[in-house]
């Protein structure tokens, strides 16, 4: 059996989890990460190539004769990494730049949903801050204000008053806190209900849906504080029924896949709609064109099928021929972040207790870490994702949290949420923070 060399583009816990799962395949040989971190170095080789440096990525794949590439981050996809790899006849998993617009341009996604009658929040888009402020003066609050472009999951601001909304518009469009991503904004109604992350593998025509998941975006317990890239996940979400999942597939996922194909930009890769289950049914908060992070860290603990077979089948238009199996257990991921995150944060803190993480089936995925001699140091806002599984959600969460703290995994200034999965355990979810 041939051992395929794999290049994984990205440097966070998502890519570490992907590599960890791919490493289990008998069809996978050498793993390379671009750029990689201290965690990925335990299973593959770091290339040091920036995930957005498309030309260097293509050259590396050609020079090393890489058999298959997986594109992880949204900004790489938006930069057209899949397009450039395909031009050189290199095999790669992920949507083209055109298909990735469903994430890189919230305006594009909203217009598509409007035309295709896919349920989502009522919205208006603006490129002029004065016009945006005139509009909000006539609206009821709360309102959600979003930068249209990519913002590493942080470009969504929930505003409860007119003054808060004006400040959000100024921050995004005038002060440009999210850079060029804020030249266009979306203002939409605030949705209430149960939040859920849906992921599907797609080959452009056929889909296979993952178990449900729930991310926890705000930095503090109780869904308080500013949004982050995600502070923890659970999967599956106990209160989301199979009937609801089928409804999501019928009213949201399949219509989007068909709409993209109809427009001549078939979506091949992982489509990830973030949803709110409202009293009126499921509605789309936003679309993502790649695996969630930290959702993927939980998902890879549950997937039983060889992921290499799945990824290849998607690129070949043969997803219908792969039977994908998931374990019936529950998984969670608790994110450990640096002090100050999601604002300015310190780097270079020594991480302790990673050698104790083998208890209870714990697997730790690295977001922002680096090696310094025999030590592993913090090197990002989100640092580690502590994952665990259990027969129940309570058991999975207990296993994870037991391995975090002064006597276990810790570093100076470490912050983490202590209520990941709590709303699911009590059977409800409290709020739209995505």
- Order of strands side by side in the largest beta sheet? 3-2-1-4-5
Q: Strand-residue fraction?
A: 25-35%
Characterize the quaternary organization of these chains: single chain
Q: Share of helix among residues?
A: 25-40%
Secondary-structure content class: alpha+beta
What is the mean pLDDT? 94
End-to-end CA span: 44 Å
**CATH fold-level topology of the largest domain:** D-amino Acid Aminotransferase, Chain A, domain 1
- Main sheet properties: 5 strands, parallel
Round the Cα radius of gyration to an integer and report it.
21 Å
Given as residue ranges, the uncertain stretches (5+ residues, pLDDT < 50) are 428-434
**Number of domain modules:** 3
CATH superfamily of the largest domain: ATP-grasp fold, B domain
> What form results from the Cα inertia axes?
globular
Question: Which CATH architecture of the largest domain?
Answer: 2-Layer Sandwich
Task: List the total number of helices.
Answer: 13
Number of strands: 23
Give the C-level CATH assignment of the largest domain.
Alpha Beta
Write the layout of secondary structure elements.
Blueprint: E1 4-10, H1 13-22, E2 28-35, E3 45-46, H2 54-63, E4 68-71, H3 74-78, H4 81-87, E5 92-93, H5 101-104, H6 106-116, E6 123-126, H7 129-136, E7 143-147, E8 156-159, H8 162-174, E9 185-189, E10 194-197, E11 200-203, E12 207-209, E13 214-215, E14 218-220, E15 224-227, E16 232-235, H9 242-262, E17 268-278, E18 281-288, H10 295-299, H11 307-316, E19 330-337, E20 363-366, E21 369-372, E22 375-378, E23 382-390, H12 393-402, H13 422-425
Parallel strand pairs: 1-2, 1-4, 2-3, 4-5
Antiparallel strand pairs: 6-9, 7-8, 7-9, 10-17, 11-12, 11-17, 13-16, 14-15, 16-19, 17-18, 19-23, 20-23, 21-22
């Amino acid at each position: 059996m041939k051992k395929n060399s794999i290049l994984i583009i990205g440097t966070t816990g998502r890519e570490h989890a992907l590599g960890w799962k791919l490493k289990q395949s008998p069809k996978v040989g050498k793993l390379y990460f671009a750029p990689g971190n201290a965690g990925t170095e335990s299973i593959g080789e770091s290339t040091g190539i920036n995930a957005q440096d498309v030309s260097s990525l293509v050259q590396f794949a050609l020079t090393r004769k890489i058999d298959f590439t997986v594109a992880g981050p949204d900004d790489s996809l938006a930069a057209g990494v899949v397009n450039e790899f395909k031009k050189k006849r290199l095999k790669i998993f992920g949507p083209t730049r055109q298909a990735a617009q469903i994430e890189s341009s919230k305006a594009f996604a909203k217009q598509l949903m409007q035309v295709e009658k896919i349920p989502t929040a009522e919205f208006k888009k603006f490129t002029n801050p004065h016009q945006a402020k005139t509009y909000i003066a006539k609206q009821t609050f709360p309102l959600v204000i979003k930068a249209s472009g990519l913002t590493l999951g942080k470009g969504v601001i929930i505003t409860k008053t007119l003054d808060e909304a004006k400040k959000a518009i100024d921050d995004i469009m005038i002060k440009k806190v999210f850079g060029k991503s804020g030249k266009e904004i979306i203002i939409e109604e605030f949705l209430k209900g149960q939040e859920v992350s849906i992921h599907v593998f797609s080959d452009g025509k056929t889909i296979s849906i993952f178990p449900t998941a729930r991310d926890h975006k705000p930095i503090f317990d109780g869904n308080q504080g500013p949004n982050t890239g995600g502070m923890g996940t659970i999967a599956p979400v106990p209160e989301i029924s199979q009937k609801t999942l089928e409804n999501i597939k019928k009213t949201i996922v399949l219509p989007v896949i068909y709409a993209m194909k109809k427009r001549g930009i078939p979506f091949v890769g992982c489509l990830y709609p973030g949803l709110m289950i409202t009293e009126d049914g499921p509605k789309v908060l936003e679309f993502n064109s790649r695996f969630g992070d930290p959702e993927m860290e939980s998902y890879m603990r549950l997937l039983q099928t060889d992921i290499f077979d799945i990824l290849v089948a998607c690129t070949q238009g043969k997803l219908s021929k792969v039977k994908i199996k998931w374990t019936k257990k529950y998984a969670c991921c608790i994110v450990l972040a640096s002090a100050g995150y999601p604002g300015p944060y310190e780097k270079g803190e020594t991480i302790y207790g990673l050698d104790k993480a083998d208890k209870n089936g714990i697997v730790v995925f690295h977001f922002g870490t680096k090696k310094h001699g025999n030590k592993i140091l913090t090197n990002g806002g989100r640092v580690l994702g502590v994952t665990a599984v259990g027969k129940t959600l309570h058991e999975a969460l207990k296993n994870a949290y037991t391995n975090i703290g002064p006597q276990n995994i810790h570093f100076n200034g470490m912050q983490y949420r202590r209520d990941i999965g709590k709303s699911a355990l009590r059977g409800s979810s409290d709020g739209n923070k995505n």
